[in-house]
Structure formats: structure tokens, C-alpha cells
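Researcher: Next sequence.
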Amino acid sequence: MVPPEQALPGRDTGLVVGRPHLVFATALDGIVPDATRTAFVAMGCFWGAERVFYDWPGVVSTAVGYQGGVTPNPTYEEVCTGRTGHAETVRVTFDPSRISYGDVVRRFFESHDPTQGFRQGADVGTQYRSAIFWLDEQQAAIAATVRDAYQRVLGERGYGSITTEITAAGPFYLAEEYHQQYLVANPYGYCGLGGTGISCPVGLATPGTVS
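Model: Next structure:
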């Protein structure tokens, strides 16, 4: 990871995506509808990672952006240098009456290989790391509980240690418009995302309950 003193300087203002979501027709301005919840996850190239969630009943909106770094309001080109510290991240807005935060975390773990460090498949770099950026202590507890349970299952199948970063959410910077719902606009576009094929345990007991 780039030391803060060596990070790119960034800029004071961020990107604005004027068009609506290509699946849900919702605005991408980050305003969370009443009675919904938000999760932030990073699991490799965000083109395929976003599709994992906008194709899932219970999710009401998604957006891709940059999180977990130092540089304010980075561009995609800057993130790809490795000198911003950001991960390619998906903001998942979901209906908690249909799916839980624990469900989101399990889907996250099952949809990529969380043991690969600063890469995901052929995509290599700190921006492709596995990460969960939590919004409160309950989310942090749930993420850690699911991670530990999945680690036991992966270990039994010969996988190494989970490298997923679980940390408090910092600013989420919206990515450029052409990245948003990229695989809707480009259905034959690149997606190198692949899971382990191993299911994550359900029915875990944790503060706040993982259902």
C-alpha cells in the first residue's frame, strides 16, 4: 500500500454521474432511500462485482467507486497507478426486509476468492484487493463473524488465509459514468471475477444476528 506521504494529491471536487442506474433507474447521487441499508464491498474488478449485486433480489441500487485510500476524488487512471490506496468498491443499497447485511457479506465471500491478497484472478494491484468497509460496529461484528466461519470452511478445503480487509468506511468516491453498470451497457465486456465454489455457512450467531 502506498504511504500517505507518497499518495497522489487528488482534487477538491468529485465526479457527478447524471444518468440514472441502468437496471433500477435510481439516481446515483448516494442519497439512501428510507428503510434501506447500505454495504460497501471490494472484490476485484468492480464491473463484475457490481453485477453480482444488481442481479440479486433484495438489492434496490448499486454504484461503483473508489474507497479505502488516501487521495481525495481520484480518477480511474490514478487508482490504477496504485498511488491512491483505493480499492475498486461496490456500494450496495438493499432492502433489509428482504435480505440482511449478513446475506450481503456471505454473497460477497462466495463470489470471489478472498485469499488472493492484492489481486483477483488475472487482475493484479492494490485496487483489486478484497475488502469490507463497515458503517457501524454491528456491521463490523457481522463481517468478522462471517469471515471467521468461511475461513474454517475454506481451510477444510485446502485454501489459505482470508486476506479480506475489514475496516471502517471512509469516503466513497463515485467512479466515472462509463464504469457504472458497465456489463449492462457492454454485455460482452470483460469480467474476470470468479468464486471458490464453496458456500458460506448460514445461521451464524453474532451481535445483531446474522440471519
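Model: The chain has five helices and eight strands. Helices lie at 46-54, 76-80, 101-110, 137-156, 182-185.
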